[in-house]
Write a structure and sequence with these properties.
By secondary structure, the chain is mainly beta. It has 4 helices and 19 strands.
Length: about 270
């Protein structure tokens, strides 16, 4: 048995996260997670990998609007209701159509980032989905995450990693959606599925990590980089990358509410 020890959404891709006590789960992941993102003039997404100052953009979901704040800027509000001109955008090698949030939002975001960008949001029926090579027969729609609806991390895995680092880092560096407690370190590698009430999540692919965990998620400044240490014991030859956490898809329970502190029934892979 494991326990939900943290729930997080990131309304704007690569901006600050929001911890939650409860969250509604949709087929595409947690409600409002990565529903907005910033794109360059060619429509290519940007992230903290190249623009760490995104960590200082702080989102808040209200009753009818998303509010964004950033240092030395007035608050920006955009409606939760889908609206705006359809524009082509890219997330990695995937091209799709998003809704541009207008000139005022573009000017605000450009000042926050320090270069010309536009704020876009998920378009209804956008048609983006997780890679079926890993998601399998479960159709897994996604908004603007890198590739999968939900990222699951394990508290004990972070504790193990922190014992190896010169300075401990917080879980927020890995930008999880769901954090588990009550499991051994890296037990998530062997989990097939999690059942939490009516919700079943299938863990389908280890999450390969980039440079973002080396960025302080409060200031956007460089900080302790876990990558060199992770590489010594978490390099996945098949994926050609360092892994921490597991990507998951929603198998059942879309529309249900998930609460922090809930117990999880863990099903491990049969080969484990």
């Amino acid at each position: 048995m494991a326990t939900v020890a943290g729930l997080y959404i990131y309304p704007v891709k690569s901006a600050r996260g929001i911890p939650l006590a409860r969250v509604r789960v949709a087929g595409a992941g947690f409600e409002w997670d990565r529903h907005w993102m910033l794109v360059d003039p060619k429509g290519m997404f940007i992230t903290q990998r190249t623009h760490p100052q995104l960590a200082q953009i702080v989102p808040e979901i209200g009753s009818d609007s998303l509010t964004l704040t950033a240092p030395d800027l007035p608050a920006l509000r955009v409606p939760l209701e889908p609206c705006g001109e359809s524009v082509p955008v890219r997330v990695w090698d995937h091209s799709c159509t998003a809704l541009d949030q207008g000139l005022t939002a573009a000017e605000w975001a450009s000042q926050a980032v320090g270069k010309p960008v536009r704020l876009v949001r998920v378009s209804p029926g956008m048609g983006r989905a997780a890679n079926p090579k890993y998601a399998g027969t479960t159709y897994a729609p996604v908004a603007f995450p890198d590739g999968y609806p939900i990222l699951v991390c394990n508290q004990a895995s972070l504790a193990d990693l922190n014992q190896r680092l010169p300075a401990a880092i917080p879980m927020e560096r890995f930008r999880p959606n769901l954090v588990l407690s009550g499991l051994p370190a890296f037990a998530e590698d062997l989990i097939d599925s999690l059942r939490i009430g009516a919700i079943t999540l299938r863990l389908v692919k280890p999450c390969t990590r980039c440079t973002v965990p080396s960025i302080d998620q409060r200031s956007g400044a460089p900080s302790t980089d876990p990558f060199p240490v992770l590489r010594t014991f978490r390099f996945d030859r098949a994926l050609r990358g360092v892994t921490f956490g597991e990507n998951a898809v929603v198998a059942t329970g879309a529309g249900s509410v998930l609460e922090d502190g809930s117990e999880c029934l863990v099903a491990f892979e049969q080969s484990a």
